[in-house]
Amino acid sequence: MITIKVFTLPSCPNCPAAKEVAKEVAEKFKGKVKVEELNLQQYFIDALQLGVASTPSVVVGNKIISRGDVPDREALIKEIEKMLSISGGQNA
């Protein structure tokens, strides 16, 4: 299962839209992708380890897809497809 991590803050005006894009993309890959919403204040150490310092930030694996803005839907889809093809090749 691939996880899309969305780092958010309650005061972030773009976070709801970023979460929505992540959920829409996960729905496209139903059963293979899940979304985790992580409050930046509560998961500060995790965020720092990934290089996240602003919200919203979207991370797939250890790769930051967007930082401080709503993610590009197509870029997120391409990264998920790439990860699925890599994991599929290793499991075959």
Could you provide a short overview of the structure?
The protein is of the alpha+beta class and 92 residues long.
What do you see in this structure?
The chain is 43% helix and 25% strand. It has 92 residues and is α+β, with helices and mostly antiparallel strands. It has one domain (2-91): Glutaredoxin (3-Layer(aba) Sandwich). It has a four-stranded mixed beta sheet with strand order 2-1-3-4, with helices on both faces. It starts with a strand and ends with a helix. 28% of the residues are buried.
Structural descriptors:
92 residues, alpha+beta, 4-stranded mixed beta sheet
The CATH class designation is Alpha Beta
CATH hierarchy: architecture = 3-Layer(aba) Sandwich
On the 0-100 scale, what is the average pLDDT? 92
> Structural class per helix/strand content?
alpha+beta
In CATH, the topology is named: Glutaredoxin
Q: Low-confidence parts, pLDDT < 50 over ≥5 residues? A: none
Beta content comes to: 25-35%
User: How many strands, which pairing sense, and closed or not: the largest β-sheet?
Assistant: 4 strands, mixed
What is the rounded distance between the termini? 16 Å
CATH superfamily: Glutaredoxin
Number of strands: 4
Q: How much helicity do the residues have?
A: 40-55%
Helices and strands, in order, run as EHEHEEH
The tally of helices reads 3
Estimate the global geometry from the Cα principal axes. globular
Integer-rounded radius of gyration = 13 Å
Total domains, how many?
Answer: 1
Placed side by side, the strands forming the largest sheet appear as: 2-1-3-4
